[in-house]
## 1
Amino acid sequence: MKKFLAILICAIMCVTLLASCDSLKHEHTQGEWQHDEEVHWRVTYCSWNKCDFDIIEEQHIDEDKNGICDVCARKEQYIFVLNYDKTGYILSDIGPGYVGGDVVIPSTYRGLPVVEIEMYAFGNCKDNLTSVTIPGSVKEIGMKAFAKQDNLETVIINGSAIVGVQSFYLCPKLKTVVIGEGTEYIYASAFEQCDSLESVTIANTVKKITGNVFAYCKNLKTITIPASVEEIGWACFIGSGFTDIYFEMSAPGESWDEEWDYGLYIDEEIGQETNVNLHWAEAE
């Protein structure tokens, strides 16, 4: 009899507890989910004050790797993938949540540095990117990563060791470029045919500027080349609007292309009408 009464009392208490829970407004909150090359995940938990439920972890797959979780359809601004040795992330593409405007690339993702911007990464946002700031964590800007951006006006690079081939090629409204400390290599045609380019600042860590980097930048009148530059490629400044180029070295380096200055002087065949003034530092 006592056993029966104990069971009955326990049952009544359970019913009372459940009724109490049912009388509450039940709200379940979704935690953050994050993206890698295989899976999205999030934590779903019960926020009932009087109900003690275990945290539930759910796997959320992104089979297409398009930045949209196949389960909850949350959209990310960028698509990141782990690099080969899993020491950092590569920004490989813009995601469905991308809004453009003045973009600041994050320096970390999921606790690891963002180390690279992959080739063609911003190729699908021609109209809505107006400026981009790249963090010092990024070591490489891939080929044509920001090429042909119709409304891009300002580029600030805070230490990318490699600025890739044609990475900012044919951006017609690009006016200002700041290449900060840590950048070492600016590869071919990186800023070619940026018709509105007026101001370029190059840090004294840059060692190599290869062919056609500033070719056909018609509004670029002056530029200063730091003493750190060991190599300049063929026709680096051809077809641009230069009146003066300032060099912080006293003469071309041994590794400079023999025709690095091709197109800087009067040449009717290419339509060059005036000579450019080259200003060299005094020899020590």
## 2
Amino acid sequence: MNHLRVTSLASGSSGNALLVQADGGALLIDCGLPQRRIERHLAHAGLCPADLTAILLTHEHGDHTLSAGPLARRHALPIVANRATTDALGGAIAGAELRTLPVGATAELGPFQVRSFAVPHDAAAPVGYCIRAGAWCVGLAIDLGSWDDTVVAGLRDADLVVIEANHDREKLRVAPYDWAVKQRIFGPRGHLDNVDAGALLARLGADGRRRTAWLAHLSERANSPMLALNIVGNVLAMATVACFDLHALPRSAPLTWESDRLLRQLELFG
């Protein structure tokens, strides 16, 4: 049984990066931080950049792709994404090795089985990922304005679910953004709010299986970790779903989940 370790390196509009490690491999999901910060985070995890199996990109926005091209070129790493995303990035990833993973397709990357699925967001062809290593699975959908059966199916098998809980609706209404920006965020291809994130988790949790859920991409001006946890928790309580261990991701401090720790908890509590 492979050990799976997932570390959030950064989460939010100022940068996103997620490190997934298993026996014999490591994946960087998004690369929205400066290259030196990525390299420092990898060193803290006991890795050199060359140890990465690949860099996976969810979509082309800069807070997810900032240093993907330079990191890939410098350390001869493959970038994995769908064709629309790599086309949208253009010269930013020129010279890097590109591997195309069509939306909805599955690829074997080292010890990982990676499957992408479409999410509603205002990018060329944004995706979430379901990543398996042995008996364990992490699912992420971190920029999306709404959710549907495709998103639910993509996340259903995950032991760790990483989903966007970007904003509180009322806080966003009074936030110091232009109305056009607010309309984009509120829209079905914008960003998921706390209530809708809770509803998505409630749908996933209807099967009663114990999971960990990370709330990601929290807005600095229109949300807070405590508010996101309270609202999502209330939505789950109203749906009588009590199987999630909920955490709000810090903007820049690492947070780690390990399959071995979850296995011990499951053995203790049945």
